[in-house]
Structure formats: C-alpha cells, structure tokens
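Duplicate of #3305? Posting structure anyway:
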C-alpha cells in the first residue's frame, strides 16, 4: 500500500513484478495522509492524516470501516501482534490504546515528558518500544503495560525504532549521527553505527542480524542522496 496525499493506493505485488501493472485499488480519504499501517491479520489498513483523523479501511472490500478524529496530535499508529488493540502515540507524550474493532479507549499511558513520536512492537509479543522528543526510547511490557527500562544515550528526538527478528536487539535512530543498537533485556549498548546525517528510518531483516537504515544524506551538490545503508552483526 502507499499513501498519496488524500488517497490510499493498493498494489498487487505479483502483477507489478510480472507485468508492471497499475495499482489494484485507489481509495479516497479525507485530508493529507501522513502515516499508514496494516493490521497483523491483513484485514484492515489504518491511515492517519494531518488533521489527526484516522480512517480504518477493510482490505477485503476496500471500504471504510470507521473513522475517528482526535483532539490532539497523533503521531505513530500500530496494532498489537494479535490485532486486538490499536495503539497510537501523541503530542502529549502519551500512548493511547484502543480496543479493535470497537475503538474504545482502554488505556492512556503517560510515556514521556514531551512529544511521543515513534512506536514499534517486537515479533515475540512481549514488548513494545516508544521514542520521544525528550531523546529517550522506552521499553514497555505488553502484558503489564509498564515501562521496563529506558535508553538514554541519544541527544535528539528518537524518530525511528526497530526490533530484530528475534526481539533481542533494538535499533534507534535520531538526528544524532549514529544509530544506537541495544540489548533489549539489559539496555546495554551493542554498538553505534556511524552515519553522516539524521536517520529517518531503521529496519531489521526478517530473519538475520542485518539492519537497513536511511539518513538525510546529501551528494556533492548538496542534493538529497536517497542512500540506503546496510549494517550486519555477526551471529
């Protein structure tokens, strides 16, 4: 799927690879979209716009299931691993948990002292992590909904997070010129991956200790370079 201003586009990957086919479905939404995510069961896509409206779309019939407007800044959005709960981070430093599909507020957690930006779940269903403008990343127990530990080594807002395939490592990216990789269970630093600019996105390989990350690199003409880098950790 892809967000295109006020439209959600669905792409059939097999058709795209084989024949360069156009998108499978185009759905109009309200306002300028800024974030999007799939439910783990594949039945729903949630898309949020600049007016803090979230729209849930049924992927089986391409129709809007529900909409909800929030009276605060909505940042990252995601389901938990079982698709039973919908999480969002907001400008008040909170994690808001909604039941799904009922969309009733079940819990509001004060996670950070300032804007809570990023959100990521581990594949094992034990933890989730948040990153904030207070330069902290925090690790939460998914069952108890308590903060287990924080990672205080970065100096700028933590904009991107990623758990390794086995949930043992957490990568954190910010405007610091390195990516911080930590052991989830202890918080101990594994390594710092140097980069020349702010990091916008980090993502682990599905089954290897291989990290991809994208930074705000410039070429020799000071134009956006659009470089994807890979960093591997010996197993």
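Output from current build:
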């Amino acid at each position: 799927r892809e967000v295109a201003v006020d439209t959600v586009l669905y792409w059939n990957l097999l058709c795209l690879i084989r024949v360069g086919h156009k998108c499978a479905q185009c759905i109009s939404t309200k306002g300028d979209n800024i974030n999007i995510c799939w439910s783990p069961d594949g039945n729903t896509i949630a898309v949020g716009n600049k007016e803090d409206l979230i729209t849930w779309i049924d992927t089986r019939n391409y129709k809007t299931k529900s909409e909800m407007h929030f009276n605060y800044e909505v940042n990252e959005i995601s389901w938990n691993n079982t698709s039973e709960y919908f999480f969002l981070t907001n400008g008040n430093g909170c994690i808001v948990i909604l039941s799904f599909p009922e969309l009733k507020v079940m819990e509001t957690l004060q996670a950070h002292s300032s804007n809570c930006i990023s959100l990521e779940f581990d594949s094992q269903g034990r933890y989730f992590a948040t990153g904030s403008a207070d330069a902290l990343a925090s690790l939460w127990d998914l069952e108890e909904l308590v903060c287990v530990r924080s990672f205080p080594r970065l100096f700028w807002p933590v904009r991107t997070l990623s758990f390794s395939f086995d949930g043992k490592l957490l990568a954190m990216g910010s405007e610091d010129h390195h990516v911080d990789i930590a052991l989830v269970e202890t918080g101990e630093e594994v390594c710092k991956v140097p980069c020349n600019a702010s990091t916008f996105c980090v993502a682990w390989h599905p089954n290897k200790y291989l990290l991809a990350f994208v930074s705000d690199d410039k070429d020799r003409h000071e134009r956006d370079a659009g470089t994807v880098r890979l960093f591997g950790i010996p197993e």
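Confirmed duplicate; merging threads. Residues 13-19 form the longest helix (7 residues). Helices lie at 13-19.
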